[in-house]
Design brief:
One of its GO terms (cellular component) is cell envelope. Residues 332-392 form the CzcB-like C-terminal circularly permuted SH3-like domain. InterPro entries: CzcB_C (IPR058649), MFP_Cation_Efflux (IPR051909), RND_pump_MFP (IPR006143). The chain has 405 residues and is of the alpha+beta class. It has 3 domains: 72-89 and 331-394, conserved putative lor/sdh protein from methanococcus maripaludis s2 fold, CATH 2.40.420.20; 95-106 and 244-330, Efflux pump adaptor protein, beta barrel domain (Elongation Factor Tu (Ef-tu), domain 3, Beta Barrel); 109-241, RNA polymerase II/Efflux pump adaptor protein, barrel-sandwich hybrid domain (OB fold (Dihydrolipoamide Acetyltransferase, E2P)). Helices cover 27% and strands 36% of the residues. The protein is built from 7 helices and 24 strands. The chain has a 7-stranded antiparallel β-sheet. Strands 1, 19, 20, 21, 22 and 23 form a 6-stranded antiparallel β-sheet that branches. α4 (152-175) packs antiparallel against α5 (181-202). The longest helix is centred in the N-terminal third of the chain and has 36 residues, at 2-37.
Length: 405
């Protein structure tokens, strides 16, 4: 009995010991796991971060370094009419940029006036501003029918016929010395006056009334009277302009007064198209510049004259680029090369045959066709000058994030 009791106690002790050892192992494993979560890779012996799982920091840097490159294929470039220009230093004129207006040249337009009193009727309803007319072409007629004062043409005819009879009679009387030479001369003067008045209207008389013709070839600049209105002799009814020569008037701030004497030419762009006209291409010349500010404003007028070989409309407002002096070794690009984003200016550079990159630049003066670049470009850069907008559209869809040279 004592032996059995001893065996039971011994078995209990062995079982308790094994359970304690297993618990210590379990606790040790849990401890190692917890410490492992916060272990230090850099200080842990034998740990090589550069070899772990093929992790490569250099690869990440390379990918980020070329994310601004744009893919634009040859087919896309051909469809867009892509053109480029190599940046190189060249001469560039100093510029004063201001506003101005196109004006008709004095003497290049004439006013059509009424040659008789009566009711005005234009030849046809299509005679409006801009209508082309020929020299001597009838543009209107004036009728005095049913007016209280009567038809002036008929009145002139009667006056002429009466004066003519008196003159023929006076010729006989003066020959017979019945009237004096002085009386005859007075009769002759009345006759000549009546004849001139009648012939001046009779030559232009039609079934509709007295015809009014254009004194020059050109176009109707403005109508000063309307059909159905009463007009008097000498009253202006329309203005005809030829527009062979025009004037460009620029209003310049008085701050540039000292530079005005150095102005040589100008470029300008109208509000109704994007064409930049060069006065040097239009046989243009500087007429004058003001010596004082006009109209109480702090602006001085500068006036040019040029041939109207294009569709330039008198009265239209313009952007004017006054040119003076010449600076050498200036980097510039065509205006078409620049794009704007959030107030910043950019150009697109061709890096490889089908690879482009957007480049921020700082522009300087512009003469309307080219822009001085103060910062952002260097000699030899290949800048997109035509098709810029298409390259810009390709920016979002064709970036090359993994490209590496």
């Amino acid at each position: 009995m004592n032996i059995i009791a001893i065996l039971i106690i011994a078995a209990f002790l062995v079982t308790s010991c094994n359970s304690q050892n297993n618990g210590e192992r379990a606790t040790g494993q849990t401890h190692e796991h917890v410490d492992g979560d916060g272990h230090d890779h850099e200080n842990e012996p034998g740990h090589d971060h550069s070899k772990e799982d093929g992790h490569d920091h250099a690869g990440e840097s390379t990918e980020k370094g070329h994310s601004d490159e744009i893919g634009f294929t040859r087919e896309q470039a051909e469809a867009a009419g892509l053109e480029t220009e190599i940046v190189k230093p060249s001469s560039f004129r100093s510029v004063i940029q201001t506003s101005g207006q196109i004006q008709a040249l004095q003497g290049d337009e004439q006013t059509i006036v009424a040659t008789s009193s009566g009711i005005l009727f234009f030849t046809n309803a299509s005679i409006t501003e801009g209508t082309s007319v020929k020299n001597g072409e009838s543009v209107a007629s004036i009728s005095a029918k049913n007016l209280q004062d009567g038809d002036p043409v008929l009145k002139a005819k009667l006056a002429f016929e009466t004066a003519e009879k008196e003159f023929r009679r006076a010729e006989k009387l003066v020959a017979d010395k019945i009237i004096s030479a002085k009386e005859f001369e007075q009769t002759r003067m009345r006759y000549e006056t009546a004849r001139a008045a009648y012939e001046g209207q009779a030559n232009n008389f039609t079934a509709k009334g007295v015809s009014v013709t254009s004194p020059i070839a050109g176009y109707i600049k403005s109508r000063l009277a309307g059909s159905g209105e009463y007009v008097s002799v000498g009253q202006p009814i329309a203005v005809v302009a030829q527009n062979r020569r025009l004037q460009l008037r620029a209003d310049v701030s008085e701050n540039y007064f000292k530079q005005l004497r150095n102005i040589q030419s100008a470029n300008f762009k109208t509000a109704y198209d994007d064409v930049v006209y060069r006065l040097s291409d239009l046989n243009g010349r500087l007429l004058s510049y003001g010596k004082t500010a006009t109209g109480g404003a702090s602006y001085i007028p500068v006036t040019f004259e040029f041939d109207n070989i294009g569709d330039i409309v008198p009265g239209s407002f313009t952007d004017v680029y006054l040119l003076f002096g010449v600076r050498e070794n200036v980097l510039s690009v065509p205006v078409s090369a620049l794009t704007e984003e959030q107030g910043l200016q950019f150009v697109y550079l061709q890096i490889e045959d089908e690879i482009f990159r957007k480049q921020e630049v700082t522009p300087g003066q512009s003469d309307g066709t080219r822009v001085e670049i103060l910062k952002g470009l260097k000699i030899g850069d290949k800048v997109v000058t035509k098709g810029t907008y298409q390259v810009k559209l390709a920016t979002a869809s064709t970036a090359i994030p993994g490209h590496n040279h």
